[in-house]
Amino acid sequence: MRKEEAKTKARALVVLEAFLLSIFLVAAVAAQVSPPPPMSGELIEEPQTEYNYAKLQISPGYEHLQMEPGDEKEFTVKVKNKEEVAVLVNPRVVIPPYGEYQLEEEWVEISPSDIEIKAGGEQKFTVKVKIPKDVDRGYYSAQIVFTNDTIPMPMPYPEPFPIYVNALHLSVDVWTPPKILIQPQYIHDRVEAGQSREYKIQLENKGNEAIAINPEIGGERYYYRPYGPSMLPEDWLTIDAPAKVEANSKATVKITVNVPADAKGMYDGSVSLNIDDPSIEEWNQMVQIHIEVWKQPTTPFKEDFTVKQGEKFTVEITARQYAYDKYGGAEEKEKPSFIVAVATPEGSKLTPEPSKTVKKGEISLGTGYLPPWEASSEGMYHVMSTVYSERYTLTNVTGGVWTLEILPRNAESFEYTIEIGE
């Protein structure tokens, strides 16, 4: 996840550079193709512009590095001369005047430093990047320029930053590994209206010093669509947490959701853990919460079906229960059950007993969603979902229209099958 975020931010820097470059190019083109109107009687001359660029093929044209303070890495750049004459190449580091953090020239060493590439020839360059130990975490960018060729900016447009033709874009994500592990960071559950649910967020401090925490409700606002989830009211949530996580130990943050009896629908919210660890970005300290509030139905579902005189029919009802956030500390839910009745064509009502019950489970051998400290203690088998089904059979029934009634209990959803005849 962290690598994907780093790549996303790195791409954003490249997009910014490309955007600025496009502005400068448009300005240059506009200045060339839209000269001021001539004075009356003045001879109109077409603007003549010649660009003498050395045509070099640089591979890669973009390099992204993820490094810790004090790290050193190197990579190879291939430069091919596409000209019919030799080209003198003298690579150097150029720092753009934008960006939150500025990469220093002395952090980058390029070899060879000065070489002539013959016509049609290719030269490999080694780029070494060394990050000082006292550097702030952040995203740094620079250009490695192989020739001084730039795109000129005709007046009256200024040239705030030279646009180099033969350059490699370098992006460096300076980071440090987080000292605290968080599990889970996403809570998804169904809670009955009027009930409460407690969730446990497990924190493990892998460092050698205690780290302070100060969990608080909110910390991040969402954009809510008109028909999307509502914002989880803060007064539904309570937090019980220690003030710190001791060195090389674990701690638990308890989040309790108390749902009012009149609530319904879906709700999204968040809890910010406020961990005093600069290696963890703000968005990685958030625990996202998605709650679906439901109510036990009080009237049964009904379905009519027709049976011939003396026939047999079988009703099978199935419900699936998902694990959801079991390993986040959610309580075990009661298993689904059904109150089943059938109304005869004469209007009387029967309450048959199930002739068969089935329990079926979906088991995962993976441990990716478990806290690291639970991966072994829970064993290798993890229940992802459980299916409960009940079968009811009536034989030699009266012909006519029958009505099936199902009142589910503790079921998210259910399926039914009516099988008539042998």
Describe the protein's architecture and organization.
The chain has 422 residues and is mostly beta strands. The chain folds into 3 domains: 152 residues, Immunoglobulin-like; 115 residues, Sandwich (Immunoglobulin-like), CATH 2.60.40.10; 120 residues, Jelly Rolls (Sandwich). The protein has 1 helix and 30 strands. Strands 2, 5, 6, 10 and 11 form a 5-stranded mixed sheet that branches. Strand 25 and strand 26 form a beta hairpin. The longest helix has 32 residues. It is elongated. About 7% of the residues have low confidence.
Describe the secondary structure blueprint for this structure.
Elements: H1 2-33, E1 56-59, E2 62-67, E3 72-81, E4 87-89, E5 92-94, E6 101-102, E7 108-111, E8 115-117, E9 122-130, E10 138-145, E11 167-174, E12 180-183, E13 186-192, E14 196-205, E15 211-212, E16 216-217, E17 230-231, E18 237-240, E19 244-245, E20 249-258, E21 265-272, E22 286-294, E23 301-307, E24 313-322, E25 337-343, E26 349-350, E27 356-364, E28 382-394, E29 400-409, E30 415-420
Parallel strand pairs: 2-11, 6-10, 13-22, 17-21
Antiparallel strand pairs: 1-3, 3-9, 4-8, 5-10, 7-9, 10-11, 12-14, 14-20, 15-19, 16-21, 18-20, 21-22, 23-29, 24-28, 24-30, 25-26, 25-29, 27-28
The biggest sheet, with number of strands, parallel, antiparallel or mixed sense and barrel status, is: 5 strands, mixed
List low-confidence stretches. 18-48
Terminal CA distance: 55 Å
Write the CATH homologous superfamily of the largest domain: Immunoglobulins
Strand content: 35-45%
Number of domains: 3
* CATH architectural type of the largest domain: Sandwich
The helix-and-strand class reads: mainly beta
Bulk shape: elongated
Report the CATH C-level class of the largest domain: Mainly Beta
Give a count of the beta strands, DSSP E runs of length 2 or more.
30
CA radius of gyration is 34 Å
Q: Total helix count?
A: 1
Mean pLDDT: 82
Helix content: under 10%
- CATH topology term of the largest domain: Immunoglobulin-like
